[in-house]
Specification:
With about 120 residues, the protein is mostly beta strands. The chain has a single domain, classed as Nucleic acid-binding proteins (OB fold (Dihydrolipoamide Acetyltransferase, E2P)), CATH 2.40.50. The chain contains no helices and six strands. A six-stranded antiparallel sheet has the order 3-2-1-4-5-6, with no helix packed on it. A hairpin with a 2-residue loop joins strand 4 and strand 5.
Length: about 120
Amino acid sequence: MSLELTGTLKQILPEQSGEGRNGPWKKQDFVIETPGQYPKLVCCTMWGGKASVLQNLSEGQQLKVFFDVESREYNGRWYTDVKAWKIEADSGSGSGSQSSDSDIPPPTDADLPDFDEEDLPF
C-alpha cells in the first residue's frame, strides 16, 4: 500500500551512510510540513540513489511525496519509518509538476539494505 502527502519542504537533513551486512548503504531525510489549520511536520527518508533527487529541491518548495510506512521492533521498542520512493515538485510555473523516478515502483524489502544491530542508530 502506497500513500501520498502534499506540503512544503521545510528542511533537507545531511546524507547518512554506512556499511551493512549486504554492503554500503546511504539515505537522506527531509522534513515536509502539511497544510491546514493544524500543520504537521513529517520526516521522510529516501534511500540509495533516489536521495540525489533532494539536491534539486529547495526549502519552501511545494511537494507531493509518495511513500510507504514501515515499523520494526528493536529491543522492545517500536520504530516507524516513512520511506519516500517518489517526489513530485511544483515547477513554479503553475503548469504542472516535475516528477522524479516516475516509472520506478515502490521499493520491496529486497531493495532495502539489511542491517546488523550495530548498524542501527538507536
